[in-house]
Amino acid sequence: MPYCGFNFLLYVVTILCMNLLCAESFHMNKCVETDLQALLKFKNALILGRNDLTSWKGEECCKWEGISCDNFTHHVIGLNLGPINYTKALRGKLDSSICELQHLIFLELSYHYLEGKIPHCMGSLGQLKELKLSGNKFVSVIPSSLRNLSSLQTLDISYNYFMFSNDLEWLSHLSNLRYLDLSYVNLTLAVDWLSSISKIHSLSELHLYGCGLHQVTPKSIPHLNTSIFLKSLNLGGNSLNSSILPWVINVGKVLTNLDLSFNSLQQIIPYDFASMAFLQYLDLSDNELHGNIPKSFRSMCQLKELRMHSNKLSGKLNDNIQQLCSAKNGLGRLDLSDNPFERGSLPDVSYFSSLDTLSLRNTNVVGILPKSYVHLSFLTNLDLSHNHLNGVDIFDGEFLSTMTTLDLSFNQLSGSMPLLEITKLASLELLDLSHNQLSGPFPHTMGELSSLSELLLTSNKLNDVINEVHLSNLSELTILDVNQNSLSFKLSSDWVAPFKLETLYASSCTLGPKFPSWLKHQGELMILDISNCGISDSFPKWFWNLSSSLQYLNVSHNQLNGPLPKSFTSMKVKFENVWDFSFNNLNGSLPPFPELYALFLSSNMFTESLSSFCTSLSMVLTYLDLSSNLLEGQLSNCWKKFEMLQVLNLAKNKLSGKIPSSIGSLRHIESIHLNNNNFSGEIPPLTLCSSLALIDLGDNNLQGILPMWIGSHLHQLIVLRLRANKFQGNIPTSMCNLSFLQVLDLSENNIIGEIP
């Protein structure tokens, strides 16, 4: 009986627990009412993006997107809405209601468009451990109330370009802080920044890139607390001089990552760098370091990546690299590019058995690529551009089977042998041999590089016929650049390429006389340059139905004929697009164009009036060239909307009437070409066009006196050409204020009086 009683009691307890668990589960997603209301206030303060928070409805806020709750108290402890796709980015202010979430432990709102100030009340979130607000539009000073976040371990306010802090003393109160990133926050007035940082004993990772940090006083360093030991330090982009190095070496006993790039380090590389025995990543690039790499670097056995490009390192390149040689050295990436080493042969780096990326561009290397490089079995990226290489030795495909990137551009490679040898590298994904002196045929073996995605051969002397055999196996090809060669594409009209190009540069090659029909299937093209390609045909209808966004289109210097389509509405374009149709035989009226950054239509045979064309142009237009056509009639007074316009060229047409006054509203205009037309009347006031450097109104029928405002407002003017008009009167003395003027042509007018 006692046993039965015990079973009954156990049964009752089990039922009660199950009921409690069910009740708990039922209320699991229903957060505390005050937290729910705070989240709704946060959402309602947003201008854009709140409609993307589709799950933020009802009372079960613990199930909402980006929200996490405590399983027992149901308080919101986490808000994670970033980083996300920019199309769903939030815009508006960070409402102070966020401070009502008093149990927050994690707050992530990075990479949105949140504006205004960071609420001062955020200092009251005493349980907060991670605060990430990077990549927003916050302004004003970082609230010093953040000093109260004693539990904070991670603070990231980087990439808020309009934020600043005049004093970092508040940071010294964050005793648990391990990760700090204030990159691109203005700290130019925080004189004692180093003293404050040195007081954060728990700090392990520090990023202060591009903060305008104040220079360190060498005498102050011995008095700083050096009990902190950082694992990762980024002080790049601050113009710091070498006075910072003793502090870096003191706190770097366990450093694994160090970035001091884009500073003003000027002395010889300190011998003491080798004391940072755990260093794996070291970036000293873009400084003014000189001399040789110290021998002490041989003891840095943990180093995996070393960047020292764009300095003033001297001596022999081979001697400098030998300072890095060690049997235990697992160096994987080495960049010594853009240093003025002594002219010499390519060094032997085969003892770096783990090397996968090597950049020695612009280091005065001469001669040929030696056979020793075939022993670099892990080498995948090799950049030897901008040197004096004049040959390539025999490559061994077995040893270099992992090579994926090879850049030998801007050298003196000649003949056909280098290209033939390089095509043995079966794993190549990027090959850049541009700006050399390669000549002869285009090897058929190029078609065997089935992994090749980028092929750059611009500015050589290759001369050959390209057919399907050369391209049939290049299924991964996305970028093809053969500009400035003598290659002739002879491809069947029904040939379908195995690749989908995003970029094609083929200027000065032969693709004509018919329009290349194989482009019909290149629906992902964003950049297309087939200028000067011997095409004497009209545009096929399918060309305007390409599904890609032609951000750059250049078909100039051909013999394209016929009209342009009446509408470009099927084209998916963006405002930064550049289209160039100049120097062809295109005719008919000008159609409405989509939003373009630059439009070049010069030297064609377009006719009719520009009255409706002006109103159809994009407001973001920056360059417009319609010169040397057959356009006639008056210009509409619609130019006020083109706030971004910098160059306007309507020269050598048959335009007439007065120059519209709205041209005087172009505040960013730098160059106006209206010469060789039939404009009449006076020059409209251009007093707001303070950036004007060139005005050419010559060979028209303009009249009146020379305006005084030319000399009093256009102080940047370099060229003023008003020849062959009907101007009269004196030359105003205000023209003497044009201190930058180099060309002044007032000939063939009715000007009288003395020259000022």
UniProtKB/TrEMBL annotation:
It is found in: Cell membrane. Its EC number is 2.7.11.1. Residues 92-267 form the Disease resistance R13L4/SHOC-2-like LRR domain. The keyword S-adenosyl-L-methionine does not apply. Its main location: membrane. It is an enzyme of class 2 (transferase). Residues 33-70 form the Leucine-rich repeat-containing N-terminal plant-type domain. InterPro entries: Leu-rich_rpt, Leu-rich_rpt_typical-subtyp, LRR_dom_sf, LRR_N_plant-typ, LRR_R13L4/SHOC2-like, RLP23-like. Residues 1-25 form the signal peptide. Transmembrane segments: none annotated. It is a single-pass type I membrane protein. One of its GO terms (molecular function) is protein serine/threonine kinase activity. Keywords: Cell membrane, Glycoprotein, Kinase, Leucine-rich repeat, Membrane, Receptor, Repeat, Serine/threonine-protein kinase, Signal, Transferase, Transmembrane, Transmembrane helix. GO terms for cellular component: plasma membrane. Belongs to the RLP family. This is Putative non-specific serine/threonine protein kinase. It comes from Medicago truncatula (Barrel medic). The lineage of its organism: Eukaryota, Viridiplantae, Streptophyta, Embryophyta, Tracheophyta.
